[in-house]
Design goal:
The chain has four helices and eight strands. It is of the alpha+beta class. The strands form three sheets. It has a four-stranded antiparallel β-sheet with strand order 1-2-4-3. Strands 5-6 form a two-stranded antiparallel ribbon. The protein has a two-stranded antiparallel sheet with strand order 7-8. A hairpin with a 2-residue loop joins strand 7 and strand 8. The protein is elongated, with a radius of gyration of 25 Å. The structure holds zinc ion. The site of zinc ion has 8 residues, from loops.
Length: 197
């Protein structure tokens, strides 16, 4: 990456006096969507908006650490790479066994630069208004028509799911009320062949 030097590589250590410091990417840059944006988009209350934002934040952080970080570290540094989180609330992604910048050649430095950029871009993406609002929408967290008055229902893989034991779980919502659906009547299939004439 142009203009990127050894001095740009961030280092982090949980130890006093920087002992045992490793190359790292600062990931505590989660800037999160304002409550008002959620209220504006979904017309929900401020309290609901905050709750939905909290859930989106948790979900995005979880997918970052459980999916993005493992796949990106492996992609850039191979299967044997060792990484961990350091700092309060996991503010740093530390890579432990790829040496230090003073030992690196230009190729290694460039690889690190690209890796750090990808990590920061991923954090920015996962905390962008657009993606956060999408997550809230996809999960129905701020949709009054999706809300269950008996449990914290969730969309899971596109299916509306009540919590176990919810009295509404076999009901459907019609005009804002949870009602037991009528058993579906099987329609007789009538083949209309009049068109042939
Ligand atoms: Zn429910």
């Amino acid at each position: 990456m142009k203009g990127y030097t050894r001095n740009d590589v961030e280092m982090h250590s949980d130890h006093f006096l920087g002992r045992d410091s490793h190359v790292a990417v600062k990931v505590k840059v989660w800037r999160f969507t304002a409550t008002e944006s959620v209220v504006d988009k979904f017309g929900c209350s401020e309290k609901e908006a905050q709750k939905a934002l909290g859930r989106a934040f948790e979900l995005h952080q979880q997918s970052f650490w459980e999916y993005d970080v493992p796949s990106l570290t492996e992609h850039f540094f191979g299967k044997n790479v060792k990484w961990r989180t350091e700092g309060r609330q996991g503010g740093w992604l530390v890579v432990c066994n790829i040496g230090v910048p003073s030992e690196w050649d230009g190729v290694k430095l460039n690889r690190w630069a690209l890796f750090a950029k990808r990590i920061k871009t991923t954090v920015a993406y996962l905390s962008s208004d657009e993606v956060v609002l999408d997550t809230i929408e996809a999960n129905g967290w701020c949709r009054p028509d999706m809300r269950c008055n008996q449990c914290e229902a969730l969309m899971i893989n596109g299916l509306y799911c009540h919590e176990i034991g919810c009295p509404n779980w076999k009901k459907v919502k019609i005009d804002g009320e949870w009602v037991t659906p009528e058993p579906e009547e099987e329609e007789d299939f009538v083949y209309d062949n009049e068109e042939d004439e």
